[in-house]
Structure formats: structure tokens, C-alpha cells
Write a structure and sequence with these properties.
Elements (H helix, E strand, L loop, with lengths): L16 H4 L4 H30 L8 H24 L6 H28 L11 H17 L1 H7 L4
Helix pairs in contact: 2-3, 3-4, 4-5
Length: about 160
């Protein structure tokens, strides 16, 4: 039989839950989709000049290149901004991400309107696809996630 000293402090040190908490679940999925958006958009921007150099008639009009760059710029910009802040564990980050999502929707809508105007003047070849409904659904889903998620509340110590 061994003697146990009941007066001695415990020997094991357990890290608190907040120190071990990592991004997971839908928050990880959101992070990965932003990485993919940034990577694919950047590849497209890098490959476009190469394609213009190798293929003479890649675009019919001069402003078609600008139109394509404008169309993908909100995804690249806001994916970069979200990736930059998503791992920071501070209480104001969910509200900041909500602003970025709203900024993406607004910028995307504004660019679509400008491109439709350029198309009506026949300055660009392709009619821009209306993405407003998809952007509103994107906004509604992710903002409600950041408002109601237990994981977001645990990770950032606060929801929106």
C-alpha cells in the first residue's frame, strides 16, 4: 500500500481551454474558402498577362481585360482582408469580418452596375452576370453564422 500525501498540490498542469482553442468547423471552412478564392483569383491575375502575350485575340475589345479584373477584384481584396484578421482572437474581429462581407457585397454590386453600363455602351464584349442575389445569400448566411455560432463566441469571446 502506498501513502498519498493529500496536502500536496496536484502535479499535473492543465492548459486552459481558451489556450488550446483553434479554428474549426464552419469557421475553418470559411477560412479555407477565402484562401481558395484568394489563390485562384491571384493565379488568374498572374496568368492573364501571359495569355495576352501568347494569344493575340484573347479579348475582343481593350476594356474586356479591365472588365475581367474589375469583376474578380472584390473576391481577391476581401478574401485577403478576411484571411488577415480571421486568426486574431479579439472580440471586435467578428464585427470586422461582417463589415468586410458587407463591403464585398457592395463593391460587387457597384462593379456589376458599372460593367452593365459599359456593356450597354458596347465598350465591353460580355454582359456581366448578375451576382446580386448570390451575394445577398452569401451575406445572409455568413453574417448569421457569425452572429449565432457558439464556436465564434468561444474563439473570439464574443459574437457580432
Amino acid at each position: 500500500m502506498t501513502d498519498i500525501n493529500t496536502y500536496a498540490p496536484p502535479e499535473s498542469v492543465v492548459a486552459t481551454e481558451s489556450e488550446n482553442l483553434t479554428i474549426g468547423g464552419w469557421l475553418r471552412f470559411y477560412q479555407i474558402t477565402n484562401y481558395l478564392s484568394l489563390i485562384l483569383g491571384t493565379i488568374l491575375v498572374i496568368c492573364m498577362p501571359i495569355g495576352l502575350f501568347l494569344i493575340d485575340d484573347l479579348f475582343e475589345k481593350e476594356l474586356d481585360v479591365v472588365a475581367l479584373l474589375l469583376e474578380i477584384s472584390p473576391s481577391i481584396l476581401f478574401s485577403f482582408l478576411i484571411i488577415k484578421v480571421i486568426k486574431i482572437r479579439e472580440t471586435h474581429i467578428p464585427a470586422k469580418i461582417k463589415k468586410y462581407i458587407g463591403g464585398y457585397v457592395f463593391m460587387s454590386l457597384l462593379i456589376t452596375l458599372v460593367l452593365r453600363y459599359l456593356y450597354s455602351l458596347e465598350l465591353i464584349t460580355d454582359k456581366p452576370t448578375p451576382t446580386f442575389l448570390g451575394d445577398i445569400i452569401y451575406y445572409a448566411i455568413w453574417v448569421s453564422y457569425f452572429k449565432r455560432s457558439k464556436r465564434v463566441a468561444e474563439y473570439y469571446r464574443q459574437n457580432i
